[in-house]
Amino acid sequence: MSKCRYLKSSFVCIYRVHVRRTDKVGTEAAFHDISEYMKHVEEYYELIKRRQKVDKKNVYLATDDPNLLEETRKKYPDYHFISDNDISKSASINQRYTDNSLRGVILDIHFLANSDFLVCTFSSQVCRVAYEIMQTLHPDASSYFRSLDDIYYFGGQNEHRQRAIYPHDPRNSAETHLKPGDLIAVAGNHWDGYSKGTNRDLAGSKPGLYPSYKVEDKIDTAVFPTYKQAKHFKIPS
């Protein structure tokens, strides 16, 4: 919200929504209706309206579904949607690897990254790249997005771990046991108050659910020498 521009006595905010469908749905990710995305956009516009007047509610829509723009405009007539159906069409499976499609996805990533608020699915690499670029434009962009499915990750990363800070006794077979200090390998956040992961400190543990508030991220730190120290620096054992 901090990037809303003040122009001619009104504030201009543009929120970006990225909707990935086509080959992704049913194989790597679930289908999400546009209303799931717009719920978060509406919440943030309501927050802005408490502070200042909003003359126009702008949303940049990036998608590989060329039918979505018309659908969205009918469902949300009080919003001004900015989109390019030629880019959406170029993202179809039979055109995805053309030069035109490449230019389209680069444009979408650029505009998504330069948003006041980003709503997308982190199961999509386009969404994650846009978020990574957003991080270079702010001291901390971690509050400027909402993902409808995955938490942030990148291919080949080390295991994402959390540490239990409260105990948890399973209430059904889908949940896992926690005690303070346990390390959990995170599979994902279900965004309903529960996360899913494997307790690495519990013998024979299988992936299970646990309340998200009962854990915190485990931060791995590394010692970096200053330039003067680098020549004689030895990594601590």
Mean pLDDT across all residues, rounded?
Answer: 83
Outline: globular
Quaternary state reads single chain
Helical content band: 25-40%
Question: Count of DSSP E strands?
Answer: 12
The N- to C-terminal Cα distance equals 44 Å
Which structural class do you get from the secondary structure elements? alpha/beta
Q: Extract low-pLDDT stretches.
A: 1-13
Number of helices: 6
Beta content comes to: 15-25%
Biggest sheet features: 5 strands, parallel
Radius of gyration: 21 Å
The helix-strand sequence is EEEHEHEHHEHEEEEEEH
In spatial order, strands of the major sheet run: 5-4-3-6-7
List the helices and strands and how they pair.
Blueprint: E1 5-7, E2 10-12, E3 14-19, H1 34-49, E4 57-63, H2 68-75, E5 79-82, H3 85-90, H4 99-113, E6 117-120, H5 125-137, E7 145-147, E8 161-164, E9 183-189, E10 194-199, E11 208-211, E12 215-217, H6 227-230
Helix pairs in contact: 4-5
Protein architecture, described:
The protein is an alpha/beta fold. 26% of the residues lie in helices and 23% in strands. The protein has helices at residues 34-49, 68-75, 85-90, 99-113, 125-137, 227-230, and strands at residues 5-7, 10-12, 14-19, 57-63, 79-82, 117-120, 145-147, 161-164, 183-189, 194-199, 208-211, 215-217. It has a five-stranded parallel β-sheet, with helices on both faces. A hairpin with an 8-residue loop joins strand 10 and strand 11. Helix 4 crosses helix 5. The protein is globular, with a radius of gyration of 21 Å.
